[in-house]
Design goal:
elongated; mainly alpha
Length: 164
């Protein structure tokens, strides 16, 4: 019975460590997808003159999954189903910081509002800002994501030592 209790407590502490590291992984994956989306916008809008809605709907499933529903929320705005608001745009996205949400909201709000040259410059400006955030996220994921997992393992070892 004692070993069973130790195993359960170890499993819980390791799970908590992985759960804390998930936020950092999600932010990194999300901003990788945003950077890719900006690059795709820039290329598709400049060379094939593709519409924003078509660019977003033609994303592959891997990148759509990494956007955590942001793409479908924006598409519903483009379809005039709802007014664009932060609550609508970031529905079911809990891992972003407030300033990141503000920047993303400004980006999506400005899409399709100007001529092609201005839009391209604006996308490149946002791309450089998103790339900076991506580098920050990668650093935080390396630092804090692995730290959370390691602390989970250390906590489980502490539980084993405590109960033995």
């Amino acid at each position: 019975m004692k070993i069973f209790l130790i195993a359960i407590l170890c499993g819980i502490s390791i799970f908590i460590g992985f759960r804390f590291s998930k936020k950092y992984r999600q932010r990194q994956q999300f901003f990788q997808a945003i950077v890719m989306l900006c690059q795709k916008f820039d290329v598709e809008m400049n060379y094939s003159k593709e519409r924003i809605k078509n660019i977003i709907t033609n994303l592959d499933e891997k990148h759509k999954g990494r956007l955590f529903g942001l793409d479908s929320n924006f598409i519903s705005f483009l379809n005039q189903e709802e007014e664009l608001s932060k609550e609508l745009l970031f529905k079911n996205i809990q891992f972003l910081k407030a300033e990141e949400k503000d920047l993303l909201f400004m980006f999506f709000k400005s899409l399709g509002r100007s001529d092609l040259d201005s839009q391209s410059k604006e996308i490149k400006n946002f791309l450089s800002r998103f790339d900076d955030i991506l580098h920050t996220c990668e650093g935080e994921n390396k630092k804090y994501g692995s730290l959370s997992v390691k602390l989970g393992f250390i906590a489980s070892l502490f539980v084993i030592i405590l109960f033995l």
